[in-house]
Write a structure and sequence with these properties.
The complex is a heterotrimer of chains A (508), B (338) and C (350). With 508 residues, chain A is of the alpha/beta class. Chain A contains 17 helices and 22 strands. In chain A, strand 17 and strand 18 form a beta hairpin. Chain B has 338 residues and is mainly alpha-helical. Chain B has a single domain, classed as Orthogonal Bundle (ABC transporter involved in vitamin B12 uptake, BtuC), CATH 1.10.3470.10. Classes of the chains: A alpha/beta (508), B mainly alpha (338), C mainly alpha (350).
Amino acid sequence: MSLNTLALEATGISKTFGSVKANDQVNLEVKKGRIHALLGENGAGKSTLVNILFGLYKADSGIVKVDGEPVDLGRPKDAIDRGIGMVHQHFQLVPVLTVAENIVLGNEPSNKANVIDIENAKEKVRELAEKYQLDVDTEAIVEDLPVGTQQRVEILRSLYREADILILDEPTAVLTPQETDHLLQVLKKLASQGVAIIFITHKLREVLEVADEVTVMRNGQVVGSTTPAETDESGLAEMMVGRSVVLRVSKETASPDATILEVINLCVQDDRELMAVNDLSLKVRSGEIFGIAGVEGNGQRELVETITGLRTADTGEILIGGTSITEFSPRQISELGVAHIPEDREKHGLIGAHSVADNLILNRYYESPFSNRGIRQQKAIAHYAKEMVEKFDIRTPSIETPSSSLSGGNKQKAIAAREFSHNAQLLVASQPTRGIDVGSIEFVHQQLINQRDQGLAVLLVSAELDEILSLSDRIGVIYRGQLIVTANATDLDRNRIGRIMTTGSDSN
Amino acid sequence: MSANPSKNIKQFFFSKRWWILTTVLLVFFTLWTSEFQQANTTSVLVSTLRHSTPLVLGAMCGLLCERSGVINIGIEGQMLMSAWGGFMVASTSGSLLLGVFAGIGIGMMMGAVLAGISVGLRGDQIIAGTVINIAALGITSFFFSLGRTLPSGKAQVIKLGPLADIPVAGRVLFSNKPITFLTLLMIPTLWFLLFRTKWGLRTRAVGEHPSAAETVGISVIGMRYLNVIMGGGIAGLAGAYLSLEAVGSFERVMTNGKGFVALAVMIFGRWNPVGAWGAALLFGYASAIQTQFQFRDWLTDDPQFIGIIPFVVTIVVLAGFVGRARPPASIGQPYSRE
Amino acid sequence: MMNNFRLFLIPVLAVALAIATGAVIIALSGSSPVDAYKALIDGSLSDSKSIGRTLEKATPLVMGGLAVAFAFKAGLFNIGGQGQLVFGALIAGAVGYGITGLPWIIHTPLALLAGAVAGAMWGAIPGILKASRGAHEVITTIMLNFVALNMTDWLASKVWREEGVIVRTPHIESSAEIPRWGELPAGFFLAVVVAFLCWYLLRSTTFGFEIKSVGLNPNAASYAGISVKKIVIMTMAISGLLAALGGAIETQGVVGRYEPGFNAGLGFEGITIALLARTHPLAVIPAAVLIGAMEAGGSMMQFKADVSPEITDIIQALILIFVATPILVRWFLSQKETNELSVSTTWGSS
């Protein structure tokens, strides 16, 4: 097999959503047996491109050739039939089905009466798993599996369909460093067996480590192609962002003061009534950022929801400024001075159909001057909203625009504007920069540091280890609802945190 | 796949302990209220089964739809339209069989309407179902003319040979009318289809995570149309049961809330045909209890209190079980590919 | 602006299409649609007497429509309007005849209030069941309709029954009667005032803001400290109150007593009206008058054109199909422009 034959060739791909040109005349060539990294910021158009290649979106114009033949990729089935497989950023697995069922779904071994031969299916999956050394339990229910294993299931699903072009959309975003290393090994092995791999990421380190070729996208266009040999991290970063970027957040040393948040032996159940937070204790002092590192789904969400009053603790206690809030409602906690940037902007942070103005006062709409004896004071609301829009540089046509039509970064700024203007003593920020552009990330990071410097206690929860490392003064590593290690940020390194996140153990 | 069968059996009894306890209690209560007379007990059980038939059919319609991700609140209207249409065809043609087919056909058409609005046009599923209910009420009231009868009378009991002579069980299980027998067959069949076949796996995948199904090449829209239309057909059979097998004529609003009770049955049965059957029997019993009260001469002066029993049970079941039972994850959300 | 115009166009077009389809059905059933519709207008809008009857019919419809529209704002679908209405009607009737010797200025509002409170309590039940147990209100409200019909039936036949063979409550005292101004029923104007109150409450109060927030995004509302449970219960109570007040006005202004079988099906008409009005409280008024006119003219249509009055049920069902489903909307608006109603999001979750 020649390593230089093209597996996939896309020419002149364009796609517009509303007024946004997500892809503008994009070209991409992927060779057999090579790992091709597709690099770019959030919103650069990488996901749009691969969704077109997988038949999930329909391109407005452009040609895709597989093995030299032009193909019409109207639906995922067309792509699958052409040997294209995809590992999605948000896993496309059915949580309540087993591993084997998920892998064979849509292509089930069955008899003539369409009765599924499940033993045969399991056997096939086991063979594949062995061949590619991707260890899975075929009978496990997918939702019970850790994220890294779910990703393996996704890869196996593509291999089961005999994919020889494998697209991975931000596969390492949810993985620990150790899991990432393992994945990269798997990709190299797949490539050596002739699979063409398109690997989307915004993490430069990974590109340099694993890619044979790199295509960089910005604002929906391809801005350049290169190879790891020809460039380095800062070169890639500059291509990606279009200007040289500061990769580190600058901050002064923290000067922590009194304890603001104290969590004592907290136990909390999740929605499935399993113990999500298990005997967890922590303290956050005024003027410091306490970062919680960990793989998602290890109790972070439940912890945050309990601190903000949205979930009830089973046992244990939470003190904020010395007041026990275990019996408090979300509103009472908010009035104690707790600001909250929720994990899911669209679902929890904003009411999309409400105007920007109404969203800016969402936590204080009932107070003076926004309300007087139960009657809303439109003038005061508008006045305040205009002030906030200006101060936080929220890009919106007007304060009456529904917040749902803002961009991700501006939505996050609106939430930040609301929560930071709230005379808080504690700020709880969950995944504060997820899915927003670099400019907004810098803004949010700077704001978090400013809040800290003004004496707030900040509890930062993030799945981005880099974010935790660069912002936190102290770090707690969470695993299955427990903080395994709590230490000063300077005493912890990437690998050690990664190990604890993955194994729950600090020993080698 | 445990290697220890006795442990499995123990586990089975433990996990089903509430069902078993309830059944034992109900059996005792039945015997007591029927004064330990075989004839009374039999008639209560027969009545339970009869009352449960349209409910389990309705619930199977509901779960077919919901397993694929579509809420069907219009079961009541689908049943009513089919009861009416089946009756009209049977009374005109003189053929009960033709009437039943007409009922199923109309049910499928109503299913297609629901699917068209909620799947095709991505309208709100609950509003779409409510529209069907209200439209069915209007249409059946307008087109119904009094004085029609079934030339052949309503469906007759079929006895399954010697099996029908077994005391109690013979009368209850082996001596029934055709749609009742058909329903008893459909319950395990649907269970098998849902949990053992390609169609079933795909249906469940579409209901739980439509985009995952789409990415492996399953047409979410197609599956939803198929299931909602088939569900409509089952609701149609329930309607035909009411007018052609149970009552023998059409009356205005003859479904009397059964389509909604069926939804509670579906939830109580955890979106599983066999579970729905158990739940339907419980509800059927709640209706059959009326006869028991007569044996004991209870509340005969205040029939209204007996009349509310099935509705109150429905509310109690909903209040007790929703949230504990986990519905298919994608229900209520219209699906579009981009 | 264009958008607003088209949003207004949809209900109008829906009504026109429904009437046209109705004409086809009338023609197919062997009558003349022109005669039928002429009779319909004759019976509903031709003189002050028929207009009075239209408004009389429209009164409980305004209230039923408001009940549904109000609940919709919190993302709740109250199809239990009928049960709430009969409770209001019965309790108003009981207070209307049971308490004697009061001046009308006290007796009339007292009876209205009693009916309204009864409906609020009955309406709060599905709210409580939803807030505490996650039981969807569509099923519980309809089940409670059946319970309410049985219970009011029992109360009217056993507890507050008039001597005689007919099951009904005694006629209310004249001090509890809502007057007519000439041919015009004063109750209608009361309903209009209530519609304005609902509009103001939703538009300009913090409570209204809370209701709308819960309706649009209950998750974000609870993150913002709004008690979703409290709002759900209170909204259902108010919705029940509105429906029940419609029943009370009907008892005190039209029927004069409670009889079982009172206004069967009214809860469903409320849905049609609320959706025709696109859940705007003020738009409920013309929508209810339209449906009221159909009801008022229905008997004239049977009398003059020999068309079964149930044809109006069909027309209403057609209107509902056109306004409640996106059939028409999709012709005019792209998916993005429509801010469609959704009540399915909380199904099956607690």
